[in-house]
Amino acid sequence: EDKVVQSPLSLVVHEGDTVTLNCSYEVTNFRSLLWYKQEKKAPTFLFMLTSSGIEKKSGRLSSILDKKELFSILNITATQTGDSAIYLCAVTSGSRLTFGEGTQLTVNP
Amino acid sequence: EAGVAQSPRYKIIEKRQSVAFWCNPISGHATLYWYQQILGQGPKLLIQFQNNGVVDDSQLPKDRFSAERLKGVDSTLKIQPAKLEDSAVYLCASSLFRYRVGTEAFFGQGTRLTVV
After folding, report:
1. Which domains, and CATH codes, for chain A?
2. Cα torsion through A66, A36, B112, B98, rounded to 10
3. pLDDT 10s digit of each residue in chain A, 109 long?
4. A window 31-50, beta carbon within 8 A of B
């Protein structure tokens, strides 16, 4: 059975802090790893990673994949209160997209 | 570009009642997914369609849940009869392809179901 594990499950930081969210996976027929941000209901797409060692970057967010060690990290620098959300990691294997439990990030002013 | 549309946004029903959710995917997206997200958990795939055919329904509780996508566009998900543990957000997503490399899924706003 495909498995995606995220850590930590929750995190509380102050504005300006840098955070690192982790995602490890065990799947057959890996195709890609995706990060989503979920603020209220709909997850919104952040990154798709398919190759090891190539950093994807968007503003203060960046992510990298290690296909040998089967994990990915999502970094957020200079956090803002608007970054408060659940961050979901998902892995595509075959035709299925499997999600982790998510990391609840709270950024306090 | 219009996003994935879902309705209703909220629904409260009593246990043993029936409920139906509707989803209209992004135009041209052949793949449609229904996910169940219980509070504090990640989304769990219930069913995946490719056009109007089912490609994965292994986690769908078929004794009470059903879904269809008759014309390969809109889809409905039904629960009959509902149980208390069905309280969750039901998310619909669509993508151009069946998760081949380079394709991401886009999500609708979801339907929050409360079973009392």
Report:
1. 3-108 (2.60.40.10)
2. -70
3. 889 999 999 999 999 999 999 999 999 888 889 999 999 778 999 999 998 888 999 999 999 999 999 999 999 999 999 999 999 999 988 777 889 999 999 999 9
4. 31-32, 34, 36, 40-45, 48, 50
